[in-house]
């Protein structure tokens, strides 16, 4: 199959599963919660920015991909980024405030992931040719990896992305 390793739908789904695993680590009192948050922060910012820069605009051109859902996905990225910043601003990873803000983040991101997988990604899988999905996957990975290498998960950068 053309571009099997970089099909944009599969690449995005893989990031979603990684985020879910990081949520499990952030909820676990035995885990390195701060380390998991740092990893999550970088992935969430890089993933969302790369989707908006390389994927969402391209998908709007295909019948079978709901443009309103794509625009709604961008709004949900903002909500997730705001919830991420709120969590990053809590100093004590063992505090009740940290746990509450983590649950706000989990709720925002899980809601977005569920909607994106059901609407945008299913539409892309059905309507976008394999070769184009492979091209989009490569572009997404390139943009995401550049952002990850730039330290995009720092609290300063998350504040800049959120606009604070």
Question: Could you characterize what this model shows?
Answer:
This protein is an all-alpha fold. The protein contains 6 helices and no strands. The model has no long low-confidence stretch (mean pLDDT 93). It is elongated and about 45 Å long. The longest helix is centred in the last third of the chain and has 32 residues, at 96-127. The chain starts with 7 loop residues before the first helix and ends with a helix. 32% of the residues are buried. The chain has helices at residues 8-27, 33-59, 67-88, 96-127, 130-149, 155-162. Helices cover 79% and strands 0% of the residues.
pLDDT < 50 stretches: none
* Helical fraction: over 70%
Number of strands: 0
Q: How would you sum up the major sheet?
A: none
Structural class call reads mainly alpha
Helices, strands, pairings?
Blueprint: H1 8-27, H2 33-59, H3 67-88, H4 96-127, H5 130-149, H6 155-162
Q: What is the gist of this entry?
A:
With 164 residues, the protein is mainly α.
Provide tags for this entry.
single chain; 164 residues; mainly alpha; 6 helices; elongated
